[in-house]
Amino acid sequence: MGATVGRALVAGGARVLWSGAGRSAETAQRAEAAGLEDAGDLAALVGHADWILSVCPPASAADVAEAVLAAGFRGVYVDANAIAPASAEAIAATLAAGGCGFVDGGIIGPPARRAGTTRLYLSGAGAEDAAECFARTDLEARVVGGGVGAASALKMAYAAWTKGSSALLLAARTLAHQAGVEEGLLEEWGLSQPHLERLSEGTARSVAPKAWRFAGEMEEIAATFASAGLPSGFHQAAAEIYRRLAALRSDDPVDAAGAAEALLAHSGPGARDHSEAAARTSSTKKPTASR
To answer: Which of 247, 191, 184, 244 is nearest to 218 (CA)?
Structure first.
């Protein structure tokens, strides 16, 4: 994603730098193909940049921002990561205390390889100027009213469904597999939900190799739901689904059967703890009625 965002800026006439220190040869090849200039280490990058655009796994968003600030950056920082509004606000406050401007962002869509597929939502002071950087590029920038946190909230609401429903679909098929009724489920899907077998296979192929990045995003979504007074448990469970699938991180193709094996492996103590807690809750709580 980062390489294609940079490529879009280069195509729009901007000079785009990146820090290649400590990065893999594959990452360097993508950056070079996108027309990005390797500034070397982070300090050198910061010394030549007026704007910093952060595109990284959600769990690293705060650390990246703090590292950029510590390196002496005093320009405008655009955080385009999948983080909760409260996380964006906290990063904005840290950067503001150090003299940086801040624009909240969220990317929706695949890597921006062609026009019309990917949008960068922006909010907060400076959002209009940030959007102008992407004018006439393959990445469409849209300004969201509401200040810092608004763009992140939109991203959280969108991914709550897209990545959340993917986790649920894989879990549902895995349940049928574990219970010995997968063939019956597929037959019923063929009758009443004819797209789901194909969708579940496609989801396993596309999601499983990237699941290591999605657990943190689900946790950010859960926090967003909780801050809005909504139940957060579904996306906490989705985070656990993606943590279990993280073992499949490779270039090898993954099918629904492979995803099911990973989900049922219970490879981490966290997975066992969640299962045991659920069992204890179901056995000790008395039924309650709601109105």
So the answer is: 244
Domains held by the chain: number:
2
Shared-domain flag, residues 7 and 116? yes
CB burial class (10 A; 0-12, 13-18, 19+) of residue 251? exposed
71 and 99: one domain? yes
pTM score: 0.88
Token pair 């940079």: residue = 6
The tens digit of pLDDT for each residue in 38-50 reads 999 999 999 999 9
The count of residues in the chain is 291
Domain residues for 273? 153-284
Residue 291 lies in a domain: no
Among 148, 181, 216, the domain boundary falls at: 148
Tokens standing for residue 2: 């980062």
The residues near 186 (Cβ < 8 Å, ≥ 6 apart) are: 197
Nearest of 43, 42, 40, 89 to residue 62 by alpha carbon: 89
> What is the Cα–Cα distance from 134 to 128, expressed in whole angstroms?
10
Q: Does residue 271 contact residue 240 with C-beta atoms inside 8 Å?
A: yes
List all residues 6 or more positions away from 95 whose beta carbon is below 8 Å from its beta carbon.
Answer: 65, 69, 77, 101, 102
